[in-house]
Design goal:
single chain, 510 residues, mainly alpha, 3 domains, 18 helices
Length: 510
């Protein structure tokens, strides 16, 4: 494995590299997803509903305890990327090992708390059958012991992300993520029970941490020298604290609508609301892959003081998502009814079609928001997204309450769409203000042409929805519209460099 020379120029954040890394990150999410589709039914069948429910709840509880890391993982990525942007690689050991030590210490505290609380969680909070209490206690103890390793892993992985070495990161994370679905199948096939499944997954995560640590040391030999500077903890917590605020408020903004539907309408209504949400949010896999690439790239560029690159990448990333996520969202909205009918039946299609159509638009807006969100994190302003989320929370709760009362499930979807669209506008305005991005750049031909061609596709699909009723006809005409969209985009919207990058990506995909 090659080592990284001590120069800021070696951290490649060119358009080609960002596109290449986005594809790698996309693969890193798709491969485990496909394995989950294949393996989860086997695991459910062998564990049964009660044990699989316990298995799922245990990981959810551990996910909430991850808030104890106080955002130091993303903070490590940001500050490492800044150091690399400045070419100050000699400062890496103090930063990285201080972050790892801080994360490990917080993980130990979280693990002890989880171990102490596990009997109370098992017996009084979670509705776990009495015959599974002993297994549940063992599982929570295993996960409590795993927390320090999981916390440390977030900081170590941040070194590879900050270096734009997603090839190395995915070379480890894809097998590790795949193992998390394959190991339970193997352990159950050998006749072992649920505690053995959890223990095997914990061991696999620790092995992945060792692999990432070894890779980082090979990449940056200076990291072989362990050093600490605990004065850096204040900076790490200053950044990570705001990340934690978003981590606390975010789930409330995302899940409050389901809670209110269950309270104001019925639990059964939640069952009709959840599938459209599940389908629509699968589209997040692409912007999430882009965000993983952009955040450290913006951090590196901020370290270099390259404001022009930041502004240009902001516009180019928005253009990319408009041209990719826009058509996907429109097609999902157009085929919402047949998709729900084919998957779950006519009853779910009747209740969920309008919900899915609204959610498709909302997911598109939320996808665009990932670009200014990553930019603000990259330039060291995580406080702004957190403050926006805090401000949105009471308004969103009131809006959900009103619209669910008036319109039921479509009202809940509309409230979510209004919230994420407003969030995008706020984040974009803040990003443009902080980076001094002029309005003429956002109104330039790149975004104008992209928005215009997407609008033309929307009008065409709306015309089809109004005047055609046969699925076969709709599919054929939609295919023609999509081909026309691609041709016009290639000819009039993409520049020569972007076409060249697409050819390279297609070659990589093959």
């Amino acid at each position: 494995m090659e080592t990284e020379p001590n120069s800021a120029a070696q951290v490649d954040i060119s358009g080609r590299r960002l596109a290449h890394n986005t594809v790698l990150n996309l693969a890193g999410r798709i491969v485990p997803l496909l394995l989950a589709i294949v393996t989860v039914p086997y695991v459910i069948h062998h564990l049964g509903p009660d044990r699989y429910g316990l298995y799922s709840l245990a990981w959810i509880v551990v996910g909430y305890f991850a808030l104890f890391n106080l955002g130091i993982g993303p903070a490590t990525t940001k500050f490492v990327a800044e150091l690399l942007g400045k070419g100050e690689i000699e400062k890496l050991p103090e930063l990285v090992w201080t972050a790892v030590a801080s994360q490990t210490g917080l993980g130990i505290i979280g693990g002890i708390l989880l171990a102490v609380l596990s009997p109370f969680l098992v017996q009084h909070v979670l509705k776990i059958p009495a015959e599974l209490h002993s297994q549940a206690n063992v599982i929570f103890l295993i996960m409590a012991a795993l927390l320090p390793f999981d916390f440390a892993s977030a900081s170590i992985q941040g070194v590879l992300g900050a270096s734009q070495r997603f090839d190395l990161l995915n070379a480890i994370s894809i097998p590790a993520s795949s193992t998390s679905y394959l190991l339970p199948v193997g352990v159950l096939a050998l006749g072992f029970g649920l505690p053995a499944v959890v223990l095997s997954l914990a061991v696999a995560r620790i092995v992945a941490l060792v692999c990432v640590s070894y890779t980082c040391i090979r990449l940056y030999p200076a990291l072989a020298h362990i050093a600490f500077d605990f004065r850096l903890v204040r900076s790490l917590l200053g950044f990570g604290g705001w990340v934690t605020v978003s981590g606390i408020v975010g789930p409330i903004l995302v899940y409050f609508d389901r809670f209110l539907i269950g309270a104001l309408v019925s639990v059964a209504a939640v069952g009709f609301y959840a599938p459209p949400y599940l389908i629509a949010t699968r589209l997040w896999i692409l912007p999430a892959s882009l965000m993983s690439t952009l955040f450290p790239a913006f951090s590196t560029s901020a370290g270099r003081g390259d404001s022009e690159w930041i502004r240009k990448t902001l516009v180019r990333s928005l253009k990319f998502l408009i041209l990719v996520m826009g058509p996907l969202a429109l097609l999902l909205a157009f085929f919402a009814r047949p998709a729900l009918t084919l998957w779950l039946g006519a009853r779910y299609a009747s209740e969920g079609t309008l919900v899915l159509q609204i959610m498709a638009v909302a997911v598109f807006a939320n996808s665009l928001a990932q670009v200014p969100y990553s930019l603000l994190y990259g330039i060291g302003r995580p406080d702004l997204p957190a403050k926006f989320h805090l401000a949105e929370l009471p308004i969103h709760i009131g809006l959900v309450w009103y619209l669910v009362t008036k319109f039921g499930l479509p009202g809940a979807a509309a409230a979510w769409a209004i919230r994420v669209t407003s969030d995008f506008v706020l984040l974009l305005a803040a990003a443009c203000w902080i980076t001094q991005t002029p309005a003429r750049l956002l109104a330039g031909k790149d975004l104008a042409r992209s928005t215009a061609i997407l609008g033309a596709l929307a009008v065409g699909l709306a015309f089809l929805a109004a005047y055609t009723r046969l699925l076969l006809t709709d599919t054929a005409l939609t295919l023609l519209l999509s081909i026309g969209f691609l041709l016009v985009t290639w000819r009039y919207v993409l520049n020569l460099e972007e076409r060249w990058q697409i050819r390279l990506l297609l070659k990589l995909a093959r």
